[in-house]
């Protein structure tokens, strides 16, 4: 028997109990166990293009391969100078005010920069306005940097768009920033200019920093167009995030960037804080940074995937058709990004619990999906799938989903049983 004294157990940071990242959590662990037992699963939990047979564009691969001898040293903490030039030029061309290489921060993915930016900004107890549903790293990083996420609703009845009036009603003396995720993960909503202008006006009124996660900026369907926030923000400090993971299908290279715009006098200390935190981790991975110039100024490889005949377009079409054909599902068709976020409706929704459903899909149907509550929503009747598999795979997944939901709909209700 072990002589281990439980009092000697290593205690961990208390606030970690408030943090979740279920996209890679308990269900994903169970999926690995099942795979270990020889089960073949369809895993739709992560927006990871490389895991679905996509490759990063050839000219990006070549850009790294041709410069591999230059990737050994650390580079500047804010990123490789030529990569920052390319990012600043890309932002200038789309109207970002005062974008310059000195105001670009390259990180190990947008993920690292989300954490660094909130660490640079927040004092204990300060609040960040975060969308609900959110991409859960925004909540987690706020909490782990001693802040408090305050959620503004993006209601499905409103096409999952933010409501500026509600956002304003949540501003308090402790509010420091507004997070916008556009195009949105998990809902696929693409925010119109008019709503963004109203949110910028709120940030202006209360001197809040705009933190704008635009990692899906060029993944749009059906003629939807993308409106970047920074050009609307003018002199107001705004940090815009982008990267190679999604638009350029290179998640594993871990390349993201954040561009600070607006009046440098208003954001000088914040700039220094970001620079210092960047310096403490020395620099981001260097090899992938050599692909940035080609990614932003070379051939466009994402638009053809989003147009009729393109792989993402066809899978999204399969998703929309499957939800339309199902009596149990209702979908706000995604305008952009890589996900569908259907709602379970009708008899199947009686006593529905998204986590229990996701576990059932895994155990009985070999499909891994993400429960809606993973995205910090108070309701339990949604789930998320990624649009990355081929259309026939998604059709098969929805046939299985329908099978399970039909069984649930046909089961006697709990009250009838009682
Ligand atoms: C909205 C959003 N922001 C940031 C990230 C993280 O991206 P990266 O791979 O650049 O860290 C993701 C990844 O799924 C995302 O969906």
Question: How would you sum up this structure, described in words?
Answer:
This protein has 418 residues and is of the alpha/beta class. It has two domains: 15-54 and 304-408, Aspartate Aminotransferase, domain 1 (Alpha-Beta Complex), CATH 3.90.1150.10; 58-297, Type I PLP-dependent aspartate aminotransferase-like (Major domain) (Aspartate Aminotransferase, domain 2). The chain has 15 helices and 15 strands. The strands form four sheets. The chain has an eight-stranded mixed β-sheet. A three-stranded antiparallel β-sheet has the order 11-15-14. Helix 1 runs parallel beside helix 13 (354-365), helix 4 packs parallel to helix 5 (137-144) and helix 12 packs parallel to helix 14 (391-410). The radius of gyration is 22 Å and the shape is globular. 45% of the residues are buried. The site of pyridoxal-5'-phosphate has 13 residues, from helix 4.
